[in-house]
Amino acid sequence: MARLADYFVLVGYDPGKRGSGDGQGQILQRFPEKDWEDNPFPQGIELFCQPSGWQLFPERNPPTFFVAVLTDINSERHYCACFTFWEAVESPQPQSHPRNGEGEEGEEEPSSPVQPAQLFAPKSLVLVSRLDHAEVFRNSLGLIYTIYVDGLSVSLENVIGNLLTCTIPITGGAQRTISLGAGDRQVIQTPINDSLPVSSCSVALLFRQLGITNVLFLFCAALTEHKILFLSSSYQRLTDACRALLALMFPLKYSFTYVPILPAQLLEVLSTPTPFIIGVHSIFQSETQELLDVVIADLDGGTVNVPECVHISLLPEPLLQQTREALSMVLDPELEVADLAFLPSTISASSLKMQDKEIRAVFLRLFAQLLQGYRWCLHIIRIHPEPVIRFHKAAFLGQRGLTEDDFLTKVLEGMAFAGFVTERGAPYRPIDLFDELVAYEVKRMRAEEGNKQKILRHIKELAEKLYKNENPYPAVTMHKVQKPTEGCHLRLHQKPFPRLDEGTVQWIIDQATAKLQTAPPAVKAEKKCMVPSGPPIAAILERNGNALANSARRLEVVRNCISYVFENKMLEAKKLFPAVLRAMKGRAARHCLTQELNLHVQQNRAVLDHQQFDFVIRMMNCCLQDCTAMDEHGIAAALLPLVTAFCRKLSPGITQFAYSCVQEHVVWTNIQFWEAMFYCDVQNHIRALYLDSNEENHAEEESTEEPQEAKSALEIASEQLRLWPTMSREKQQELIQKEESTVFSQAIHYANRMSYLLLPLDTSKNRLLRSSGLGDVESVSNSFVTNSIAGSVAESYDTESGFEDAESSDVANYVVRFINRFVDKVCTESGVTNEHLKGLHVMIPDIVQMHIETLDAVHRESKRLPPIQKPKLLRPNLLVGEECVMEGLRVCLMPDGREEAAGGSIGGPPLLPAEGAIFLTTYRIIFKGTPTDPLVGEQVVIRSFPIASLTKEKKISIQAQADPFLQEGLQLRSCTFQLLKIAFDEEVASDSAEIFRKHLHKLRYPQHVRGTFAFTVGQSPKQAMQPKAKEKNPSLRTLSKNLVKNAKKTIGRQYVTRKKYTPPAWEQRGSQHFPEDNEDEISVSEDMDRSTLTPSTTMRPSDKMTNAHVVERACCRDYQRLGLGTLSSSLTRSKNEPFRISTVNRMYAICRSYPGLLIVPQSIPDNTIQRISRCYRQNRFPVVCWRNSRTKAVLLRSGGLHGKGVVGLFKSQNAPTAGPSQTDSTSLEQEKYLQAVINSMPHYSDASGRNTLSGFTSAHMSSAGKWGSIRASGRMSSYALNVEIGSRLAGKDLLGAQHNGTPAETTFLRQHRASLYIIGDKSQLKGVKPDPLQHWEVVPIEVFDVRQVKASFKKLMKACVPGCPSSDPSVAYLRSLEESEWLSQIHKILQISVLVVELLDTGSSVLVSLEDGWDITTQVVSLVQLLSDRYYRTLEGFRLLVEKEWLSFGHRFSHRGAQTLAGQSSGFAPIFLQFLDCVHQIHLQFPMEFEFSQYYLKFLSYHYISNRFRTFLLDSDYERIELGLLYEEKGERKSQQVHKSIWDYIDRINRKTPVFFNYMFAPEDGEVLRPYSNISNLKVWDYYTEETLSEGPSYDWELTQGQPEHVEEPDRQDTGAPQSKRRIIWPCYDNRSRVEPDAISRLLQELHNLKTELGHVQERWKETWDGVKASQRTEARQEGSRTPSSLLMSSGLSHHRRSLGVYLQESGVGSTLNLSLDSDTSSTSTPSSGKPGGRRSTSTLYSQFQTSESENRSYEGSLYKKGAFMKPWKPRWFVLDKTKHQLRYYDSRMDTECKGVIDLAEVESITPGTPTMGAPKTVDEKAFFDLKTTKRVYNFCAQDVQLAQQWIDRIQSCLSDA
Questions:
Q1: Residue 1387 Cα to chain centre, angstroms
Q2: φ and ψ at 1770, to 5 degrees?
Q3: Local structure of residue 830 (DSSP, 8 states)
């Protein structure tokens, strides 16, 4: 029983305190005046009576009632029912006499019965109770007010006395009728079960006010401990809302600040840091604005405002959705049927009270689902004297699969849940609705999921129970309570509330208490029972939905592997091992592993040999590495006993246990994990304790987390608790002691266990966190260095001495502190006595110390273990003369961003990471090793690149996959598109790694070019640094010395780029023979001086000898071929030759970077040249390098102009001069020079010197050349001429908006073409106006500089060979490729080149004068020659082109390639590579035009930077002479294998094998190629992306030869199985061209093998090939067809080459290119196709046209066709297509859009026709014929009779074929 009300208080307005602002309240009377002993009087009631402040009002308000809640210091809630009414006070004017302290406001002034300024003060009647019966309080206080207002004849004292002495039962569903002695009657019902909250309608109201989503937000916010503030203008609503929120949280109880109505004076409470639920009147809304972390619910407006900084975790899906749906079914039943055509009549929502219960039922179900199975995660750690229970949060989350869920995690960590465990964890107690629901209904809820009717039925059932609990007696007798008369509060002369007589009230109270004391105490019969546990948590599938992760097959693999390990079948185990490690990602596999390992432990011990131990350790580590610190799946818990069981003997008496090798995991450092483990073990022991004593059978120890057949710990506990009261005192004491000592012994056990896992193996020093690869078996177990927490704290502690005293050691201290903290926590929680606790604290340092000592011995021994065998280091093959600088360092080659080798997109086992060694030789860096993946363990992986190509080297730290520690490594990037990402093995000392880097650096950047491999080859590396002083060939040496000396003399003050250096002593030469008459030329050259540079046009005989070698240089042969002058000794050389070979630069005096012999106009004397040269950068004046044999236009090159030169060039001759500087002679000479070039052109003939259009006859245009473009035309019409280049380029972007990269047909801007175009740099030619009187025109273009090329190349390398994998490789690759802008640079170069080709082909000469004349100028000039002259597209010609334009004309190879120390800072600029890439693009588009293959280009790309040959060293001929390199190539080499020139090497290979030859080579005469240059037409060169891991780069030919035979043959024979011809070719591993050669190479090879077998004399492949081609031609002739130009052509491809159009589906673009060219004059060559990724080789491209398809256009030509009725005759281009069986016609030959199709199937007959009106006049009548189809008759006319006959025959044959 309990008192209905504890106190009755009368609170009034305090006039004395009324000051500036609000007034205050004061307690006028309270009953009883003494505090109850069990319940002191709450403070501050007067604040809560008027929460918005005590104020006077001008009129009387009606009485109000609300319930405020106060919480006392013991967190007991007191309900204060406040009934407030208003009383008049005197007007505040006469302030003189103070009021009496009683504050009886009632004495009105009789003089003024009604005062206008009358004010009213509030007065409150307050009941204070611990019970929440709001309605009863409302009625009782209302009754007291009624008695007072209506003046009933009832004593107020009696009523109040009765109210205060009324007692009611607390729970149990009793019904009690009370009367306060005023003729009233009230019935009070108490709830059946007081643990369920009472809510009447408040929950339903809350949902009405805020809606479903908002209330769910509030609900989640309250559970996750956010601050919640309700606003409303009604106090009662605030109380209801707060009560509703608490009711929803059941069974959790809110334990933070809870103030449903907060008074104004206490508003600062809102800024408290702790969570709260508070209600505030909405007039204070503005004060709540600046609260940043409070969720504000406005009940009146129906909004919930969540501030930005607050993140509310919502319920996990699918619960959130299910709860929403259930709530909407309850609150809005019409929603379900809203769309029905016939609405059911019976839908009606439940009454508000019932709805309230239904909503609560939804939330009750929600909690049952959230917390289902929670009892299986309770650990009971003490039963007597009090049960102590802990909840295993991690296990609960893990088994529910909700570890990631924010909401549940926060709820479980919250105070409310802690209270829940304390309250509901007890195994023996009364149970309520929630306990039953969570135990018995969870299965039903799972089954009904998704069935709305069943869910609703369940909700209604629960709601019934809740309703019954609140209203146990449905038929309640009516209350009878008097109410005051209507409007009584407005009476004017209302007496004030009387002062009550304390004595009377007190007497009534005393009597009642006396009566109570004599009454027997009411014993509440509590029905206690064992709390049911409910079904265990069903193992929910792993959250990521990958059900396969636990497939039985994987578990089978795990089991097999473990049994192999224990049966010592190591090879089998090794094969399964990777699969096991992969399976460990799944939870089931990890559980399986722990169970399997458990089976192999006998008597807590399992001794293994080293290899077994190693496997077990690795499996354990892999198993643990996916565990979080929480260990939610109990994996670490299951392994904990095992790590102290598995061990190996290191030496007699010293055993190493598994725990010393699995310390690396976070879980061991998590104190919660240890607590959970400890409690779990304690529970098992306590259970065993009682099982032992009760039944003598010792049940198997099991953790409670799995369901058991035997009694669970909680069942035993509840049994014990039931018996407890019946036991004797001694028995109780004995049990308490037993339990306590059980806990204590476990604590000691755990102190040991923790020291095992926390103390690192090597405690003497702070461990280096070095790691080892998976394959690094030994490292994992033998020299294992650990990363346990102790070490991470012991950073500072580093001593060699070991641990003489534990105090000095940080590691030991740390571990001791950690264990102490743990022991303190668990022992105080589980009630260990203080003596025991102190004993533990003393023991722990000793335990740690002992363990450290045993570890020292183990560590010592483990170091002595013989290391487990690592794979043998494989030695790489070296070239002749290549020597090892550093022996192999053992490393692991890690995968980089290229995913193929790592098993990426292609699949297959990963080749990387691979274990092996890195070697540094004088020439290369080589990695050679084997993959760690056992499935490809037999393969060999090689990756290498020349040292000279190294562009970046950086230190990195790498995490190998198996072990969590970092290794130091290097990342080496090479400009041959190779990346070595290596991690050093731990056996490699860090100083060896440093030495490796130093050596690498020294070799990469030698002091001088003679330190490079091309020079040092064949010497021992030591001597490479000191050159020898011995000389063999004095003559040669003196020659070059003098040349240099003279050049230096002559250079004088001129602008020179190179620094001078004295030639160092020579290295020893081989036996080279030179002409013996050297002496004579030396004597000549010594007395040469500048004065002797005479302007003679012929050479003096004495000079002739000097130039003997120079003449032999390739370029001279070329000049003679081009007819640009000969070096004849006769003086009678024809004067009319426009050009001559000048020797003006033979001493390199004028321009160091030019060759000795130059082509200049015949008319220009040498001394003029010298002057002109000063106008150009680097003195690189314009010289001729090529002449078009047809138009005689010449191509010149020079450096860019200096400023002065620019001005001179554009000054018109007759302009007024501004001063002498402008009439400088040089500029005139410069003009003369250019004019001389122009004069050399044969058609420079008309008087005005203009090169007008009329000057060109169509003869000039006879050959149109090849456009790879749609509009290319064989007849050229007027197209080629109407391109006005200069003005177009100057005005627009270079070749602006052309759709295909071909020059645009812009309108004619100037009526004539210049004879000479100067292509110059826009930035230099600023402000230059073209002068109409000059014969040259400047084309300013924007070019990129070397810096941009460098930057672009860096990005290209990163794109093609990324350093680390990206999330989406294909996208990342394309994006970074675009960002590199490499292709746009290629596009620009090709564009300029095509433009120049075009100009030359139309007869204008071109001078390319860009930058210094040695980078982009060289690229353009070389490409122009390649495109214009088919000679340069042969092997010999290409070599000549490179020697002439790149080597002789001084492209700075050493500088651009950063080959020496001096060039290190400038970095690598791949100008030549860019040129080769352009050639590759052209090669792709015109595969039949080149004699050399794509491989040839790659070969050059690789070797021009490899420094293996001397060809591409140094910056100019001058430097090569200075070093004596230039002429030695002519010397004979007898025995020497080492090739100094790349060309000799290529020749040698080419003789042996057709690898550089292009079988498709079938050149056309006089072809000019015009490639597309648009970026969409360019392909990424596969040189950048491909690699061959089986042998490394295939460009060092000797290294990769001799392998294929022995690779293929044994494979085939040693298998006894039926032999399959199929082979797997691995794109990134095998060398495709060798493993799977193309058809012709294979045939040649077979032919070779057969001849060898027959013993025939071997002939070279080239002879065989030529022979085959010749016989092919004769056969073809006998067949009478046209002579095909190559072997391939005869196979039906000839159709194509010459056919009038080729349809080529571009797989990349998807457009059909129709290239139709005139069949007689030219042919098409098709741009190749393919996507950038999988580029097809040209051979496959061509092979896709089979013969059948080649007849796609079987016959075509022009016919006149008569239009439909009344239409004229028109010429149309007709195509007869056998394949499609149709006759198509087009507007013109070039038209790609078909204008009409005649289906041959519809043709009925074809007959000779007659001319009709409007037919062409000149044509013979017999040339007409008609074609009759089913629809109409077509009239045709051919040019002549033969053609008509041919057409008729062709169409007939098509018809007959059909």
A1: 30
A2: -135, 145
A3: T
Residue 1041 has pLDDT above 60, yes or no: no
Cα dihedral 1158→1159→1160→1165 (10° resolution): 50
Strand-pairing partners, residue 973, are 952, 979
End-to-end Cα, the chain, rounded Å = 112
Measured CA to CA, the distance from residue 1435 to residue 1550 in angstroms comes to: 10
Give the pLDDT of residue 476. Answer: 60
Residue-wise pLDDT tens digits, 1706-1738: 333 333 333 333 333 333 333 443 333 444 444
**Phi/psi class of residue 275: alpha, beta or left (left: φ > 0; alpha: ψ in -120 to 50)?**
beta
What is the structure's pLDDT at 1607?
A: 36
The closest alpha carbon to 355, from 517, 474, 244, belongs to: 244
DSSP reduced 3-state for 1064: coil
The count of other CB atoms within 10 Å of the CB of residue 1246 is 12
**1123, 1117 contact by CB (below 8 A):** no
CA pair distance 292, 310, nearest whole angstrom = 8
Strands 1316-1321 and 1405-1409: parallel
Residue 1701 clears pLDDT 70, i.e. is over it? no
Q: Evaluate whether 1200 touches 1319 at the Cβ level (below 8 Å).
A: no
User: Which pTM value belongs to this model?
Assistant: 0.51
Tell me the H-state helices in 1346-1458: 1346-1360, 1369-1380, 1382-1401, 1416-1428, 1435-1441, 1453-1456
Contact call for residues 1309 and 1330 (beta carbons, < 8 A): no
Per the structure block, which two tokens stand in for 351? Answer: 């009454």
160 in Cβ contact with 147 (< 8 Å):
no
What pLDDT band is residue 477 in, cutting at 50, 70 and 90?
low
Structure tokens at 1707: 């797989």
Alpha-helical runs (H) found in 3-112? 45-49
Strands (DSSP E) along 794-881, which ranges?
A: none
Find all residues with CB under 8 Å of 1670, minimum gap 6, and list them: none
Q: Strand pairing partners for 1161? A: 1139
DSSP 163: H
Task: State pLDDT tens for residues 540-550.
Answer: 433 444 444 45
Span 1556-1579, pLDDT tens digits: 999 888 888 777 899 999 989 999
Distance separating alpha carbons of residues 1455 and 141, to the nearest angstrom:
104
Say if CB 1569 and CB 1486 are below 8 A apart. yes
> Is the CB of residue 156 less than 8 Å from the CB of residue 501?
no
Mean pLDDT of 27-51: 85
Distance in angstroms (rounded) separating the CA atoms of residues 1195 and 1178: 20
- Helix or strand or coil: residue 996? helix
| CA–CA gap between residue 1829 and residue 326 (Å, rounded) | 75
Strand-pairing partners, residue 119, are: 89
Residue of 68, 19, 18, 76 whose CA lies nearest to 45: 68
Cβ atoms of residues 1325 and 1340 within 8 Å: yes
Check residue 1261 and give its pLDDT: 33
Type of residue numbered 1348 = Q
Task: In whole angstroms, give the CA distance from residue 1421 to residue 1195.
Answer: 8
